[in-house]
């Protein structure tokens, strides 16, 4: 049985991580005291995200970090979830929305304080698969401390899966430092992270608008957590086809650096539905610009419920004319769990490795280049200890990743590519 650590960083990451734990409690029928209230609910894999103590309480295996104490104080005041106070760390300095503070000065000191908790999780877990990390790319605490944690886990044990769930601020940039912060943490995610599931506030706003929900961060966190509940259902419950972090990385990543996924999920309430509907904009939690269905390099379909009588049926596959696949490679797979969600009988989730992510990168790359060319705000990072070479390396890494997505873009657009190898063989 795999075990996973939940890590929330900064105000955004803590909010998402806490809401995710609340949804986990609800899905596993745990009360406010972290006790199981429905013994009939399948508890075979409940320890994926929990440690059971001597009083039969299931305490979340988590860690929360922030350079401001405000978010951590809210954790202690809320009564919906019991969080071990020894797993919450904060300082009273703040990051000033500066990546360098979270990466090198205050954030590095905070990392030293919490390493013993991470070491304890490593020692106590019998089969630790990896971590799920939540943070905002634009914040100084989120981006800086996340880079530290990514490096720490890679040095601690390279065999563990590092799964980042960053929330991008695309189109809702509050200040120019967010562009720098995002590119810096992207530099770390490109090089050393195994899986990145991309979320952004623009897509979350659209989902709330089309479903007539209030538009605030609490609702955004809830929508995002519901998607994560669907993604991790096959980790936590048995089914026809089981899933896991390693299986996800093995099947959806054709090349090591192309590991950025676009999530969607759809609640099925009607009889007449089509699996291709999951590609509609209203179900996507990340809004890649000009993202065509044919731009997916690989994808995973997550089935949950009893309406899927034959989970391996071809009717539950997206047709080839609606989605692009790498020639001669089977780049899709499905996971299934028959344990239904308490509120919904049937849910379909989707993770796509999309070529459209390069359009996302270009948005930040262009703004970063314009600012760095004029050395705008560079001094705010240099006075804390960053070198100008780090700006250059991050920019080059983004440009390289954009070029790596390029060949797949052309193969999507030019049909003769598919016949190239046949002509050569002939």
Automatic annotation (TrEMBL):
Keyword line: GTP-binding, Microtubule, Nucleotide-binding
Record-linked InterPro entries: Tubulin, Tubulin_FtsZ_GTPase
GO BP of this protein: microtubule-based process
GO MF annotations, alphabetized: GTP binding
Domain spans labelled Tubulin/FtsZ GTPase: 46-239
Residue spans crossing the bilayer: none
Pfam families per record: Tubulin
Entry keyword Lipid biosynthesis: no
Gene Ontology cellular component annotations, sorted alphabetically: microtubule
Coiled-coil parts of chain: none
Membership in a protein family: Belongs to the tubulin family.
Protein name, entry field: Tubulin/FtsZ GTPase domain-containing protein
């Amino acid at each position: 049985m795999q075990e996973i650590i939940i890590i929330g960083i900064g105000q955004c990451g803590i909010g998402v991580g806490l809401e995710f734990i609340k949804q986990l409690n609800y899905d596993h029928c745990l009360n406010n005291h972290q006790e199981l209230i429905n013994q009939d609910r399948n508890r075979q894999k409940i320890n994926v995200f929990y440690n059971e103590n001597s009083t039969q309480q299931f305490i979340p295996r988590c860690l929360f970090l922030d350079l401001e104490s405000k978010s951590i104080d809210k954790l202690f005041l809320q009564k919906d979830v019991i969080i071990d106070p020894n797993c919450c760390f904060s300082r009273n300095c703040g990051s000033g929305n500066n990546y360098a503070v979270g990466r090198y000065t205050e954030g590095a000191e905070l990392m030293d304080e919490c390493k013993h908790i991470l070491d304890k999780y490593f020692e106590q877990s019998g089969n630790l698969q990896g971590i799920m990390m939540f943070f905002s790319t634009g914040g100084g605490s989120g981006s800086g401390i996340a880079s530290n944690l990514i490096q720490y886990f890679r040095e601690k044990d390279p065999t563990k899966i590092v799964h980042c769930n960053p929330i991008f601020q695309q189109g809702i940039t509050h200040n120019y430092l967010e562009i720098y912060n995002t590119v810096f943490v992207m530099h770390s995610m490109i090089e050393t992270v195994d899986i990145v599931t991309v979320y952004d506030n623009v897509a979350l706003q659209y989902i709330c608008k089309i479903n007539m929900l209030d538009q605030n961060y609490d609702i955004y966190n809830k929508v995002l957590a519901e998607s994560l509940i669907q993604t991790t259902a096959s980790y936590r419950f048995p089914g026809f086809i089981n899933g896991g972090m390693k299986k996800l990385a093995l099947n959806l990543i054709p090349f090591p650096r192309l590991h950025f996924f676009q999530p969607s999920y759809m609640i099925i309430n009607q009889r007449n539905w089509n699996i291709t509907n999951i590609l509609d904009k209203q179900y996507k939690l990340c809004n890649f610009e000009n993202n065509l269905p044919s731009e997916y390099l690989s994808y995973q379909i997550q089935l949950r419920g009893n309406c899927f009588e034959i989970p391996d049926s071809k009717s539950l596959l997206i047709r080839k004319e609606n989605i692009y696949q790498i020639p001669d490679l089977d780049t899709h797979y499905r996971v299934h769990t028959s344990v239904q969600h308490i509120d919904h009988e049937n849910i379909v989730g989707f993770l796509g490795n999309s070529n459209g992510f390069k359009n996302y990168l270009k948005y930040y790359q262009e703004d970063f280049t314009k600012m760095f060319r004029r050395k705008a705000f560079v001094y705010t990072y240099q006075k804390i200890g960053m070198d100008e070479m780090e700006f250059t390396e991050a920019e080059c890494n983004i440009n390289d990743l954009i070029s790596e997505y390029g060949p797949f873009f052309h193969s999507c657009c030019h049909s003769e590519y598919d016949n190239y190898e046949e002509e050569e063989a002939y």
